[in-house]
Amino acid sequence: MASSSTAIKPAWTAPQPSLEPNANNKRIALPVRVEPKVFFANERTFLSWLNFTVVLGGLAIGLLNFGDHISRVSAGLFTLTAMLIMLYALYTFQWRANKIRQHMAAPYDDRIGPTILCVLLVLTVAFNFYLRLGT
Fold it and tell me: pTM for this one?
């Protein structure tokens, strides 16, 4: 029978901080364990963002080839939006990859970036509607 002090912690518990106090209240550095699936999750996220930009670029090419002057302006805005999203995805991928490679315990979530990109996309679509309703 196991005592309560030797309880097994579940695998889903939060990671330990990189510095922990010892018996003398001095902090000692502990290595951060990085599993291989973390690298692949970062790549999957990057590819997901790129997939979205390819779809957005396809929309821009369709507007450019089969539309009038207003569609060409909208195609330019959609292309610019897709390029900004690509740059954001590349920056985020590189930042996370460097942090993972250095075994740093950093917050890898991004709460502001997707919101800004969605607002940019909504503004692009709204400008397209504005141009269409203005004629």
Answer: 0.71
> Which residue, among 88, 103, 108, has the nearest Cα to 41 in the 3D structure?
108
Six token digits for residue 35: 């599993």
Angle made by CA atoms 118, 135, 56, in degrees to the nearest 5: 30
CB–CB of 83/122 below 8 Å? Answer: no
| Sign of the dihedral through C-alpha 113, 114, 117, 122 | negative
CA distances 33 to 18, 38, 42, 102, Å, are 10, 10, 16, 11
CB 53 within 8 A of CB 90: no
Rounded Cα–Cα distance for residues 60 and 65 (Å): 9
The answer on pLDDT for 27 being more than 80 is: no
What is the per-residue pLDDT across 28-54, written as a single tens digit (0 to 9) for each? 666 667 788 888 999 999 999 999 999
Q: Are 99 and 108 in contact (CB under 8 A)?
A: yes
